[in-house]
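User: Quick sanity check before I run a bigger batch. Here is a single chain. Can you write out its predicted 3D structure?
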Amino acid sequence: MRDLDDENTPLRPQFDLLLSEGVGPFLGSMGFTQHGTKFVRYRGPIYDVIGFQNDWHNDVYSWHGFFVNVGVGSREVDEVWPGPCPQPPIGFLFDRRWESVVPDLPYEPRFDRDTNMKEFAAALREGLEMVVAVIEGFDCTATLVEYATTNNLLIAYERTCCYLAAVEDVEALAGYVGVLRDHFGHQERWANFNREISWVSGACAQTLVERGVLDPVAR
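Assistant: Done. Predicted structure follows.
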């Protein structure tokens, strides 16, 4: 989830006002807190992040555009990760643009100096409400990890494998790594994926080798 500093673009003040007054109180009522252009919420071990990413070209057009990024992660997944876990939280197992969460939503919302910002904010809140309804389906780490093993390929694959190994869910781990091997095993970069998966899988790596979904790695 990327940030873009475009403080010098002409409509940036209206954008900041849109987030602080048009969106912030609404998301705040659902438990989100604002951190710059991101809104973060914790639900037990689950955390939701909705980020507003400004268009790179806002300094050359008469309109101001942005993208809405949606991430869901788990502190239980982060806690078993052997590498550093910076704050604010990263490592989303669900990491999408809002139009892929709710297909009717616009790819890039835009406004200009003639836009009725009250109506624009109302439409934005309506879209966010639908997005939040979807991500609330991830009610625990298990549902989030199940989504990842079913739908993700390279999105946070190391964290997914690491967590499955940590909880000793060998069946789910072997199934997921098998899918990754089917997709990427014929490519040169598979050697890198294989090495990373072996590292994060720890003691489970040998079982994956025995099942034929992972290649041996020299220690």
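DSSP finds nine helices and six strands in the chain.

User: Great, the batch can go ahead then.
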